[in-house]
């Protein structure tokens, strides 16, 4: 039965044409005085009173709702027209200004001095006192260029054109102040010689003596005396050498001094 009532109410609401003036007048009368009882339809007399009262209430509510809707007019959603959103302004990209070309100042030219070169010309001719020749022997004495203000070395170059069966070499280093031996060497085998260093006659004497039964082949060799000395440049004018040898051609000896370093 409720479905039937609901359907009738819906059909009545759809067919109803509200009279706005009458509805306003009815609302005003309702506000001014007691509600007017309406006479129920004959078709509804047999219904229970509660059903009739519910039906009447639903009709009043429907009529009042339509009246209020007519008074309020169209809702904003029905009458308002949504304005199109304003288009966002197009932002043109700011042109990028090209960076100015980077110019690198050329580095100043650096002039590198050329390294000092050692002259390659012929060596100076040694003095007569530093070079000697006798028989199969030839000799030359010189002050080593690696000496300094505290240390020095004297070199003897000895050459023989024949094998030697005996040989004695002496280097005399004058005692010019604090002269002390720091060593010696030779290019021949050290096992073939007896080497001594001693001070004699105001000089430090370095002596090499070839051992018996040993020989020195023909060729050129070197002997060197190393020593400390007083601080400063040392004068080698008082230094000397002497060599004596025996070969198949006989006895030969050479002697001389030492050419200053150059």
Quick synopsis:
The protein is of the alpha+beta class and 262 residues long. It folds into 2 domains: 2-32 and 47-74; 131-256, Immunoglobulin-like, CATH 2.60.40.
Task: For the structure shown, list the relevant keywords.
21% helix; alpha+beta; Immunoglobulin-like; single chain; transmembrane helix; 2 domains
Structure description:
There is one protein chain. With 262 residues, the protein is of the alpha+beta class. It has 2 domains: 2-32 and 47-74; 131-256, Immunoglobulin-like. It has 4 helices and 10 strands, in the order H-H-H-H-E-E-E-E-E-E-E-E-E-E. The chain has helices at 2-15, 20-32, 49-72, 76-79, and strands at residues 131-134, 137-143, 151-160, 164-174, 180-186, 193-200, 203-210, 219-228, 240-247, 250-256. The strands form 2 sheets. A 5-stranded antiparallel β-sheet has the order 1-2-3-8-5, with no helix packed on it. Strand 9 and strand 10 form a beta hairpin. The radius of gyration is 70 Å and the shape is rod-shaped. The termini are far apart. Residues 38-96 and 98-128 have low confidence and may be disordered.
